[in-house]
Amino acid sequence: MLRKVVPIIPLVIGLVLVRMYESIWFYDPFLAYFKGSYKENPFPDFNGIQLFFNLGFRYILNTTFSLGIIFLLFKNKEFIKVASFLYLIFFVILISGFFYIVNYTDSSYNFILFYIRRFLIQPLFLLLFLPAFYLQLKSQN
């Protein structure tokens, strides 16, 4: 058990560091927006290209750490293939939805934007994939 947990620790620390230093490492004017009283405020001004690349880079970092955790826990390349494909599909859908909302709607959609952004910047898919892959592994045995 300990042999399985120890290699995962640096990956979890990586996820924590991404979260701890998010305001330093990444351009994201929506960090301050969603910490304030965003329900009454319009969307902040932002540089779309810079925001896209920073959200994408953060998503890639979280995905890389998450795929490492999945691999170390399950040692199953098929799980990595499936998870990688899902991460890619979800990124395309989420980033498209994010930029559609900020560019073509008003702040009345900020609640939806909050959750789309949350899935882009937090490793929430890892929390969904771990039990799914665990159940898949158990059903195969």
- Low-confidence blocks of residues: none
| Shape assignment | elongated
Our estimate of the beta-strand percent is under 5%
Largest sheet: none
SSE ordering: HHHHHHHH
- Straight-line N-to-C gap: 19 Å
Number of strands: 0
Helix content: over 70%
Q: Which structural class best describes the helix and strand composition?
A: mainly alpha
The chain-level mean pLDDT equals 94
Task: Give the C-alpha Rg.
Answer: 17 Å
Q: Tally the helices.
A: 8
Write the layout of secondary structure elements.
Layout: H1 2-5, H2 8-20, H3 22-25, H4 30-35, H5 48-74, H6 77-104, H7 110-121, H8 124-140
Structure characterization notes:
This protein is mostly helical. The longest helix has 28 residues, at 77-104. The chain contains 8 helices and no strands.
Care to give the gist of this entry?
This protein has 141 residues and is an all-alpha fold. The chain has helices spanning 2-5, 8-20, 22-25, 30-35, 48-74, 77-104, 110-121, 124-140.
Features:
141 residues, mainly alpha, 79% helix, 0% strand
